[in-house]
Specification:
Layout (H helix, E strand, L loop, with lengths): L1 E8 L2 H13 L5 E3 L26 H14 L3 E3 L3 E5 L5 E5 L4 E9 L3 E3 L5 H5 L5 E2 L2 H4 L7 E5 L3 H11 L4 E5 L9 H8 L4 E4 L2 E9 L3 E9 L5 E5 L2 E4 L3 E3 L30 E3 L11 H21 L2
Parallel strand pairs: 1-2, 1-6, 2-3, 6-17, 8-15, 9-10, 9-15, 10-11
Antiparallel strand pairs: 4-5, 5-6, 7-16, 12-13, 13-14
Helix pairs in contact: 1-2, 1-7, 5-6
Length: 310
Amino acid sequence: MEHTRCLIIGSGPAGYTAGIYTGRADLKPVLYEGMQPGGQLTITTEIENFPGYPEGISGTEMMAQLKQQAQRFGTDVRTGYIVKADFSQRPFHLVDDHDNEIEAEAVIIATGASARWLGLDSEKKLYGQGVSACATCDGYFYKGLEVAVVGGGDTACEEANYLSTLCSKVYLIHRRNELRASKSMQHRVLTNPKIEVIWDSTTKEICGNDLDGVTGADLQNLKTGEIRHIDIAGFFVAIGHKPNTDFIKGQIDLDEQGYIKVSNPSSATNIPGVFAAGDVCDPHYRQAIVAAGKGCVAAMDVERFLQENK
């Protein structure tokens, strides 16, 4: 069985940053990239809000650079993912998707969270060309234009309010006749003159093409069956995220949504020697720069833990 001092599960800004720091600490970490190497940023067209890139950079290119930097400092980056983990005792016992067994003295979980989607073919086709799951990331591209947000919870309302500061109009599409968001958040949406709530409706189709991106959406009223078309340039899906924590359920403490609980400001979980970083333990911010910072925190926590538990 293979042995490592530090195993990093997941890539993206959190995982790769953890690899950079643990590599520089001479821990010779092993990093499994997961089912989507580089994380969700690899399907993002352009990133303009990450410090150090004044002209912007594609998500794929940024993740490639972070990966190279981690490898430069000795991180063993591997394709594949962890399918089973036993945290009952140290060293921890883990199994990857090729049935390879590995034991680790410390583990950093950076498996991220996946956006929930509507499941439309047009949604997949136009992702990154007007379809997005992050208003903070992509809202600036639609300054002065009309956009739509799907959802009725706090996240959807927050995204709609944020977009209203940039866009000329925001449609908030909700399948029910009342919002699920907190009363204060509802009030902000319902009193915002730039937001129009479209009640009792679902998205039938997102309209657009490879050249123009999103151009509109066809909505169906669930009570009348009537189809309404809206002209928009951006379509934001805000129906929640699912943290990628299925493989650790029952061992690591999770919140009611499935996010890993950490002892802030550290990255420590309820299991000594197991740490978490990035979107897998962050239901609030979900930003690349925050994930990278938490990857640094987790790496430093691991280094300190291993020094104290030789």
